[in-house]
Specification:
Strand 3 and strand 4 form a beta hairpin. The chain has about 140 residues and is an alpha+beta fold. The protein contains 3 helices and 5 strands.
Length: about 140
């Protein structure tokens, strides 16, 4: 399996690697990763999938939105600029003491709040695109 994909032309292979990661996780983690991936893609149809750091699915739009790491007891969505995002539903439950990132740990049997996650993804896109526009000005 390819270990890293940081090249812009490799979006199709990154998506294939994420497909393979989901398929190899034959327990609840594969289903949870597939679910959050579907929510991310629906929330932002222009999202770009990449594969970085030797095996981490990454979703980007004008910069990193979030990563999707899998551990034995959790699927972790880490938002690159999470500390700057509104989180009225209180989805962030990990990495709360950092200055920049925030994460959502999803554990076996937990339900994903699709509406709140969609809002968080869209807020991350808005933050990233606002930052890019202000840099061009």
């Amino acid at each position: 399996m390819q270990q890293e994909n940081d090249k812009p032309g490799d979006v199709a292979s990154a998506s294939a690697l994420i497909d393979a990661r989901i398929a190899e996780l034959t327990d609840w983690r594969g289903a949870a990763l597939a679910k959050v991936r579907a929510i991310i893609r629906q929330a932002d149809p222009q999202v770009i999938e990449s594969w970085k750091w030797r095996g981490v699915p990454v979703w980007e739009h004008a910069g990193i939105l979030c990563t999707g790491e899998t551990y034995k007891i959790a699927v972790k969505l880490t938002f690159a600029k999470g500390a700057s995002l509104p989180d009225p539903a209180g989805l962030f439950n990990a990495s709360l003491d950092g200055n920049t990132r925030r994460a959502i740990d999803i554990h076996e049997g937990e339900t994903i709040d699709e509406v709140a996650l969609t809002a968080l993804i869209r807020a991350a896109v808005a933050l990233n695109t606002a930052g890019k526009k202000s840099q061009k000005a």
